[in-house]
UniProtKB/TrEMBL annotation:
Gene Ontology BP annotations: DNA replication initiation; negative regulation of DNA-templated DNA replication initiation
SUPFAM superfamilies, sorted: P-loop containing nucleoside triphosphate hydrolases
Protein name in the entry: DnaA regulatory inactivator Hda
Hda lid domain boundaries: 160-224
Pfam family, one: Bac_DnaA
Record-annotated Chromosomal replication initiator protein DnaA ATPAse domain positions: 16-153
InterPro entries the UniProt entry points to: DnaA_dom, Hda, Hda_lid, P-loop_NTPase
Length: 226
């Protein structure tokens, strides 16, 4: 995937691939998203269940003609017309559509894009949101029905054991060794929000490099002041 396929300097996190994505209770959702059997896949769930990670992994795996737009990050800096012409891509990934669909211009452009994708039948489109299509706050009611055309899948939170595995796999991708007891300590002491756990791991990575130390429980206590 070339940088030209990611507009506005959007960069994919280098460690968010399928190698670091633990399926847990979401194995079927991952299978459906990866199989590409549907023109439209709607993924929803609370923050931290892996929606963005899954889109990042799909984009990283794709060879060409892919576009990824994190709409919650871009909504204040780009015009809704950025959605025009996206049907020319083979894979379209729109993250956090619930951040924009309540606005008329974004709702109109998304509605039009969904229609073009269905009519042309040459693209695969995946979108994420924090709620199901029926619960979305939208400017155009028809957007809800369009988003229900394809497969709608809810992603669920990982178990504690899966979170430990996810931390270890992410640490390995970062070149770190994270023992299972140390990862368990992080889950138990830092809370069970995966976004916060990954952010803490990235902080520990920098501290480990600076101090030339391994990730041990005493070292983690000092760095994170816990």
């Amino acid at each position: 995937m070339t940088l030209q396929q990611l507009p506005l300097n959007v960069q994919l996190p280098r460690n968010e691939t399928f190698a670091t994505l633990v399926p847990g209770p979401n194995a079927e959702a991952l299978r459906l998203a990866r199989a590409g059997e549907q023109d439209l896949t709607y993924l929803w769930g609370r923050a931290g269940v892996g929606k963005s990670h899954l889109l990042h992994a799909l984009c990283s795996e794709a060879q060409n003609q892919v576009i990824y737009l994190p709409l919650n990050e871009l909504k204040d800096s780009v015009d809704a017309r950025i959605l025009r012409g996206l049907e020319s891509y083979a894979l379209i990934c729109l993250d956090d559509i619930d951040a924009v669909v309540a606005e008329q211009d974004w709702g109109f452009e998304l509605f039009a894009l969904l229609n073009r994708v269905r009519d042309q039948a040459t693209s695969r489109m995946l979108v994420t949101a924090s709620t199901s299509p029926g619960q979305l706050q939208v400017a155009y009611a028809d957007v809800r029905s369009r988003l229900s055309w394809g497969v709608v899948v809810q992603l669920h939170e990982l178990s504690d054991s899966d979170k430990i595995t996810a931390l270890q796999q992410r640490a390995h991708a970062m070149g770190l060794e994270l023992r299972s007891d140390t990862a368990q300590f992080m889950v138990q002491r830092l809370g069970r929000d995966m976004l916060e756990l990954i952010a803490s791991l990235e902080r520990l990575d920098k501290a480990s490099i600076a101090a030339q130390r391994k990730l041990t429980i005493p070292f983690i206590k000092v760095v994170l002041a816990i």
